[in-house]
Amino acid sequence: MWAEIKRLKPIERQPDGNLPRLTPQQAIIIRKAVRQCCNYAEGECLLLDDGEGQVCPQAISSTLNCRYFRNAVLPANPKLEKEIFGIRANRRCKICGSYFIGGSGNAKYCARCAAAVHRKQKAACARKQRSGVDK
């Protein structure tokens, strides 16, 4: 069984490298799907069964961490799959290159870099006003 699980594709990770975290609503839906569709019997995972009972990790976790569930069960619910793995409003900062969630359609910088860029822009504007030159 382990060889079968190891052959499955790994779970997609977020840009920061963490596994996808589930909202409470998503966790409820996933726990129901684990009990109904997955290799689950009385709180134990049948795929992990090696003679003694193993608790199903997906049934007790708030992240998506079971490869079998991700590849075999979750595609049956495309709306939930898109909600968990769908493209979020992640943008890449023009200065430092880190990912951030933009507050508007014009966001170019993460919060830390935005403060520095704004300060530089204000200084340039003030210099221009003090010089009396309209360029």
User: Share of helix among residues?
Assistant: 40-55%
The overall strand count is: 4
| Rg measurement, Å | 23 Å
Separation of the first and last Cα atoms:
71 Å
Mean pLDDT: 80
Determine the strand fraction and express it as a percent band.
5-15%
Protein structure class: mainly alpha
The number of helical elements comes to 6
* Morphology: rod-shaped
H/E series: HHEEHHHEEH
Low-confidence stretches: none
Side by side, the strands of the main sheet go 1-2
Main pleated-sheet profile:
2 strands, antiparallel
Regarding quaternary structure, what we see is: single chain
Provide an overview of this structure.
The protein has about 140 residues and is mostly helical. About 45% of the residues lie in helices and about 5% in strands. The protein is built from six helices and four strands. The longest helix is centred in the last third of the chain and has 21 residues, at about 110-130. It is rod-shaped. It starts with a helix and ends with a helix. The model has no long low-confidence stretch (mean pLDDT about 80).
